[in-house]
Design brief:
alpha/beta, Udp-n-acetylmuramoylalanyl-d-glutamate--2,6- Diaminopimelate Ligase, Chain: A, domain 1, UDP-N-acetylmuramoyl-L-alanine:D-glutamate ligase, Protein-Tyrosine Phosphatase, Chain A, 3 domains, 6-stranded mixed β-sheet, 17 helices
Amino acid sequence: MPIHGITERSRNVKDGFIFVARKGARDDGILHVQEAIERGAVAIVVDRNTGLDNNATKEMTLITVPDGRKFISHASAKLAGHPSESMTIIAVTGTNGKTTVTHFIGQLLAMLGEPAAVIGTTGLFMNGRKVNLDIPEMTTLPAEFLHPLLRDCVDAGMKYMVMEASSLGLSTSRLDHCKIDVGVFLNIGVDHYEEHGSKEAYIAAKKRLTTMARDLIVNAADRECVELVKCSERPIHFFNELMVAGKMIPYDLYPIFLPGKHNRLNALAAVTVMHLLGYNYLKILQLCSRLKLPEGRLQRLDGGDVTVFIDYAHTPDALQTVLASLTEESTGELITVFGCGGDRDRGKRPQMGKVAATYSSKVYITSDNPRNEEPSTIIEEILMGINCESGKINVELDRRAAIEKAICYAKNGDVVLIAGKGHEKTQQIGQELLTFSDYEVAEVALRTKKK
């Protein structure tokens, strides 16, 4: 029987599809078998005793497999013709910096005339241009979307694919049947612990990449990363602020033009990848002066006397890194607007509050994506980490109002950092997904301030 596709989402089933009735965190595919059949499924895959209604599936092929996720990964790669084998795949993991590093690698490849695609938090880019596709907004795509996308990229002539490999993507087998040539380890910080169940489980998820990639590139300055790869049998290539793949960086080629030490380190991670791909690292360092930060990563808005930065920093490590960088470059006050997402790691909230209060002259604590949590409860947990004069801290539940107040307060020479959402164009409150852009709100507030 010809098979035209595979999915674990019943609403995506079409004629000739296999439906994998897998049990997820919030829903059970078994409950949607009938819908899948009505939409044209020709086979149902299960990975446990189901209690399925025999009348509903009596004329349907029923397949039992040990692991539904691994089956989706295997079958998606097979149906797409194993496209990863026709490309050089670079997978970048780390708590912070994945988007920036993947885009830097993509830009360097483009400068050399190499056809390259980049996929991750900000979407799909081919040769530097964004391609709008009907795919989930996830850092690492599920296998049923990833392999058809890789096939499209191969058919479009892409020679390289640079992708973000999130801890959740690795732990849920999304990349299991994707051939990975280079695995990059940037850092291990505080995030996603609750989603994985523990810090140990989070690190174990990252560690999976050490067995999946042919070669490993590792930040020698991050102890957790070094510890993570020490038992790996794969070739390991280290980089830090002074070297790429064991080679010292000439002072005159050091990427000092990029804002923040973390972005300079991100650039050197990208240079190390290029060196491993066979390019002369000195030549690549010369190209680094043309690198541009991706949207929402220390994205700058000049408002005359006041400068605003939009950044995706949503972990304590990332927020501290960005604030430390801006402290070095600011001549006036540093004003921070931030919140924490709901239904995510609660342990980081007081830590982020402490970081913001330590580095900032003024802090506006607000909503991020509260999701199904009460925004005021999230803010209370952020405040638990703050021990300073009350005049420094301002609470404003409405994110738009918080941004407007921060920019209105800012004076000549001040810097305003709006952290947490970066490139995002929406805000999730409860089950509603509202249109919201930090950049656009800040832009309007700056124009109003000038009047």
